[in-house]
Structures are given as C-alpha cells and as structure tokens.
Amino acid sequence: MKRLFSVSVLTLAALLFFSGCDKKEDNPVDPPPPAKDALVGTWVSEGSDVAPGLVSVSKTVRVVATFNENKTYKVVSTDSSNTSVTFEGTWSYTDNAGTDIKSITLNQSTPAALTSSGIFEISASGNLTYEIIQTNPAIQGFTAPTAAEGFGSTKYNGIKLGVTWIQKYVKHNPETEPLVGKWLSEGANIAPGLATVSKTKRIDATFNSNGTYKVVSTDSSDAQVTFEGTFTTRTVAGTSIREITLNQTAPSALTSSGIYRVNTSGMWYEVIQTNPALQGFTAPNSTEGFGSTKYNGVKLGATWIQKYVKN
Fold this sequence. Notes:
Layout: H1 2-26, E1 41-46, H2 52-58, E2 60-67, E3 72-79, E4 84-96, E5 99-110, E6 114-122, E7 128-136, E8 142-143, E9 155-156, E10 159-160, E11 167-171, E12 181-186, H3 192-197, E13 200-207, E14 212-219, E15 224-235, E16 242-250, E17 254-263, E18 266-275, E19 281-282, E20 294-295, E21 298-299, E22 306-310
Antiparallel strand pairs: 1-2, 1-11, 2-3, 3-4, 4-5, 5-6, 6-7, 7-11, 8-9, 9-10, 12-13, 12-22, 13-14, 14-15, 15-16, 16-17, 17-18, 18-22, 19-20, 20-21
C-alpha cells in the first residue's frame, strides 16, 4: 500500500510537471523590449536655450539635433540670416558614477572630420542640457567640460567659461503635450498690446490634457474676465514653435489662432482672433515666427507676444 501511494504521488508530480511545461509552450511570455536610449530622438534649441557662445560667435538662432539608434547623428544649425549648416557623424557616451551627467564623444564626418567631447544630462522633465567642444584637432587654450566639474566647466587657459557653451534642448515631439499645465504671465511678460488695450496686468492660463483650457485675465483695476474653451496643437518640422487653434466657448464663441513655444525657461505665446476675423489683422505663423502678427500687411513685432512661466 505504501509503495502504491509513492508511485501515485510520483505519477501525479510528473503529470503536473508536463502539464506545466505544455502550458508554458502554449502561452509563451515574450521578454520586455529593451528600453529606448533617452538621448535618441530629435531635439530643438531656440531662443534663450541657445548657448550664448553660439549666439555671439555664429549668430545661431536655432539648432536641431537628431541622435539615431544606430549611433549616427545629424545637427542642423541655423543663423540669424537663415543660413543653415549641417553636421553629421557618430556618437557614443559613457555613464559616470555618482552623477546623472554623462560623458559624450562625437566623431564628426561632415562637413569636416573632427572630434568633439563634452557632457550632457536629461532632466526628469525630459529636457536636455548639453555642453561640448572640439577636441581633435584641439582648439588652442580650450579644455572640454567634464562630468566631475559639471556644466560650465569648459575652460579657456584654465578659466571656466560658465554658461557660455551650455546648450539646452527640448524634445521636438515629446510624448506629452508641452502646453499642458498652469502658466502665469505678469509684469514685463504681458504682451504690450494687452497692457495698452485692456490694461492687463496678470494672466493665469491652464491647459488641460483633455484639450480644454481656462484663462483668467486680470486688469489694473483687479477686474477679471475668464475665457474657456478647447484647443488643438500641431508640431511643425524643424522648429520647437508649434501651431495652436483655440475654440472659445465662454464668455462668447469665437476662434483664435497662432503659435507658441515651450522651452526650458518658459513659454512664448502669440495668438489672435481669427473667426470672426478682426479687420486688417493676420494671425502669426510658424514660418515667420514670433512677431509675425500683421495689421494691413505690416508685422507688429513684440506687440502681441505673451510670455509665461510655469506656475
């Protein structure tokens, strides 16, 4: 009897084992895909994000950098005369113990063969801080930044150059809409046109992930007006400027159109009512950039440029 019980137990164990094996074969579990390198993608630097050194030396107004999974890169730099230069090559980086700052090396092949070295870091909010300098052939007197000394550690004749070569970028097509959140504009950030026409002194703007918005405008006498409705946006290739359409429902139904840009320091925003149209006015567009609102064909410059900080 004892022998029969032992055999039965062994038989049951074998059946369970083979049953388990069959079940695994019928329902294979795929391994999770490898995490995408955070640097891979297209990044844009414009406005206050452009390194002061690039603004001063090359009159740079925009840099679009694409890092590919196959370790190649393409950087298009555009200056104030709208002339572009394209740089291409391969990239690699290494981690550094005790810091999130990584060391990067670029082996450029176009327009000339050279090597640049430096550092970068991607913040929790998804923005990129980046500082590199040509190291081969070396530029006399210059020393590349290091992770140990951090950003601003590019040196000339042993002296740190601070923010001069610190470049900041935002993702060209981020996973979440960069406009979403609460924004505040007051003081010098108020568009001159709003300060003059409606005596606006403060604007609190909230853009929600469900595509609705609420804007509270406060004038110099502390009277408030609340505007509500829905919004849609569109990414524009080669720039961090995005197009926006606002379909207002309160206090009246109308449509406004324009452009905005969110970078590491805040948001620039320029829109104008387009339906019903305001006679003589033309909305700004991403091709002509900020300041392109027109009246009778004449650009109005800074008049309707609104600046915000995240609240």
